[in-house]
Amino acid sequence: MPSEEFVRGMLYLSLTVVGVPGNTAVILAFLLALYQENRLLPADAIILHLACVNLLVVGVRCLLETLASFSLANVFGDTGCKAVIFVYRTSRSLSIWLTFVLSAYQCLSIAPPGSRWASVRVLAAHYLGLVFLVLWVINTCMSSAAILFSLGTQNDSSLMSHGINVQFCYVRFPSKLSKQANGAAQVGRDVVPMALMTLASLIILVFLYKHSQQVKGLRSSSSSSGGSGGSEQRAAKAVVALVTLYVVLYGVDNGLWVYTLTVRKTMGSSMISDLRIFFSSLYAALSPLVIIASNRKVNGRLRCVVQEKPIQDKAKTLSAM
Hints:
321 residues; mainly alpha; 10 helices; globular
């Protein structure tokens, strides 16, 4: 196996090993909470949806790329390329927009009760299912170019103009204009939620700073200070951490994407596309670790599951004696 493909396979394998169990653990924790409590808070429903989408990103793209890199399996024919790139682009963009929805909802959650923004939060929670549906429809439609223009490497695509080399597949656009238009649409689809979630995070950070100043003032005047709002602050800090992770990783991803669009002919190497996919998939792999570390509902359920397993094994051993 060439060293380049081995390194490539190991990178995708690392994302798969971290991302698949991590997102699966988050999904199972929230499903367990739903089973026990018969409901999920709106923020928890957003995180659950985000984990499902991130699992699609890592499972569909990184796992299949790993298998193909090590020549264990290869589904990247014409049909496979269309399906994989379509699902990857749809789930990737949904991951971005759901991160924005989470940051926006958390920003609304810190609004004082009775304010106009608090009313908007209640309205957003009520129509959260509709928000999910609209995001799915929009992002599915915007990813339709993958079905029209993707094809496998068995086609002689190395000499094509207006194409993008993604190792096992090519995305062939019929003209320079269509390539640039599709690229601009994808950049806009990423930059808009990036700007909005950054704004929401700045508002959250300002609120946290003012709150910390108020707490310091209370502590200086009284030795006893209430612990109200602690869970909201933890949730807000976790959202800011997710947004920061997103902005860094997807910023690199979009920079590489813009560079790809400026190349006149299809690149002989897929290194730039591999780096793009790696950085965008890195968010899908690392975000569940942030969620598990910061969300008490998730790590509490997972801790209970881990602790119950040895107890059940011990009970089975005693009953067998």
